[in-house]
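Hey, can you fold this one?
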Amino acid sequence: MTTLAPLSRPEAGPPPELAHPNPGRSGRWAPYAMVAPLVLVLVAVLAVPLVRLVTVSLQKYGLDQLIGGKSAEWVGFSQYGKVLTDPVFYRSLLHTVLFVLAAVSLTVVLGLAVAQLVAKVSAAVRVIMLLALVTVWAMPPIIAMPIWRWLIDQRFGVLNYLLNKIGVLPTRSFNWFSHAITGWAVITAIVVWGALPFVVISLHAALTAVSRDHVEAARLDGAGALKVFTAVTLPAIRPTLLVITILSIIWDYRVFAQIWLLRDIGANKDAFYTIGIWSYVQSFSNKNFGLGAAISLISVVLLATLSAFAVRQVLRSTAAEGAR
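Sure. Predicted structure:
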C-alpha cells in the first residue's frame, strides 16, 4: 500500500495583496473624507455666527439697522478702541477673573472632598448622594434662581432667618446684594452648588480606578492618609483633575444667568458686571449691537487663549505621565 504524504499547509499570514499595502491617492484622502461632515457642521454652527459677529463689530449697528432697515455705517476698529479704553472693561475683566478663580478653586476642592466622601460611605448612602447630585445637576439655572432668591430674600428669606437665630446676622432684613462682596459670595456659592455634581461624579469615577494594590503598598510602608493621597491617589487622578479644572474655567467664565437674575436685588448693579453681562447690557439694554459685538469678540479671544493654554498644559501632563 502506498502511503500518501500529508499535504503541507501554507503558513498563516496576510494575503499577498495586503502584505505590502500601497494605498493610492484615494486611500490617503479617506480619513479627511470621514471627518469632512463634522467639519462642515462645525463651520455652519460656529464659523458663520462668528463671521457675522466680526462684521457687526466693525459697524455702527443699532436698533435702526436691526429693525429699521437702515444701512450700517462701517467704523472699522474704532469700537474696539472704545472697549479697550473704557474703565468699565477692565473693571468687568477684574470681576470675571476674580470670580472664576474663586468659583473654580472652591468647585475643585469641594468636589474632590465630596468625591472622597462618596467613595468611603456605604453603598446605600452612596446611591442616595449620587441621586441627589444628579437632581441638582439636572435643574436648569432659570428654575433654580427663584428658589435661591426666596432663600436669600431680605424679608422672608430662610437663610436670613437661620443666620439671625444663631447670631451670625444682627437682623433678618439683610440685603446680600447691597454690598459687592456678599453679593459675589452668594453668586459664587450658587455657581459652585450647580457645578459640584459633575465634578464629584467625574472624580468619584477616577477614584474608583486607583490601584488598590498601590494604596495598600503605601500603607504597608508606613504612609499616612495624607501621604497616600499625595503620592498615590493624586498622581492617578491628575489627568481627570486637569480636564475638570479646564472645563470649570470655561463654564465659570461663561456664567450669565445666575448673575443676571440676581444682580437686580441690590441697588448697585454695576458692581456685578462681568464681560458677558457688560456685553449684554450694551447690546440689548443700550441697543448698541456693534459695541456689544466688539466686547463679545474680545471675550471670545480671551477665552480661546486661556483654553489653548490650559489644553497645552493637559497635553504636557499627559505626555509626562506616559513617559513614566
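The chain has one domain: 73-323. Let me know if you want another pass with a different chain boundary.
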